[in-house]
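Before relying on records like the one below, remember that each one covers exactly one chain. Contacts with other chains, cofactors or solvent are not represented anywhere in the record.
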Amino acid sequence: MEMKAAVLYEPNKPMEVQTVELDDPSDGEVLVRIGAAGVCHSDLHLIKGEWTTPLPAVLGHEGAGIVEKVGAGVTRVKPGDHVILNFRANCGHCHYCVVGRPVLCDGIDTPRSAMFDGTVRLHRHGADIHHMARVSCFAEYAVVPESGAVPVRKDMPLDRACLIGCAVMTGVGAVANTARVRPGETVAVIGCGGVGLNAVQGAALAGADRVIAIDLLDNKLEYARLFGATDTINAGNGDAAERVREMTGGGVDFAFEAIGNPQAIQQAYEMCRLGGTTVIVGMAPEDDVLEFNALSIPRTERAIIGSWYGSARPWVDLPRLADMYMRGRLKIDELISRSYPLEQINEAYDALQAGEVARSVLTFD
């Protein structure tokens, strides 16, 4: 079939919205008509060449839509299902899938720029176009593995559901699943973009006694208060780590870094109390390196852990988050600053880089 998609041909060049060909789903795959897609910073890493991927490619990994067709052997979804796209489609049988950590799945040995069988479903004029994270939802349709399309309730608005597929799951999950913050504990969050705001929200939902949001932009700090921050710090006004330690009498129990910046990670570590935990959520450029004083770690018993996709169990957590939103317990409406048509995708990324938005979404007719 033919459809419109945003294709990235070169780093640091605008994506081109053009007509491409999309194959039917193969065995174990699902064709989804995209309803909405989130404008996420992870795609920006690829646009700027900070992460490498085969090009040309259709980006987009934060999406939701309606199943149009399924391939042979698909049993968990059917045409008409409303689905959130899971950018960590998993095999279901490797060690990590079996023990309940599917985002760490290592049972597929083909690159994530292709389907499980190593081939692509996207083409233009006979040339292959690569996928992003086996999703590629900056397009009118996407073919994804069955485990990459998670059914949710049909009354969940798709332009809200798409954000559960990355920003909400990553931020809330980092608090609830990875760190397991308990009521009464203290939390700091560095970076108040889409993921950071959801870490703030997750901490508030967990009953954290104090939630300190940190950013360089005052408009982002205002968003953070809306999502449950009890305190805010503009990191451009002095040493943020020192201020957190002063405010809390020694540091927080958990500091979440939601930018992907080595200096911010160092600050997160320094604002933790003795025995506290730094949770690295942000996705840094591939070549960035961290340096820590080795002796400080045993002397302070501080821990440093990573959180990948909020340690999600997508088939459990994504429908649960949709239910929480529909019951009024989860803020998503407030996350959406702007909506754009696919044709304005480059403008949407300009706004993201300028720090003008909490989150933007692409919507499809």
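The two ends are 17 Å apart (CA to CA).
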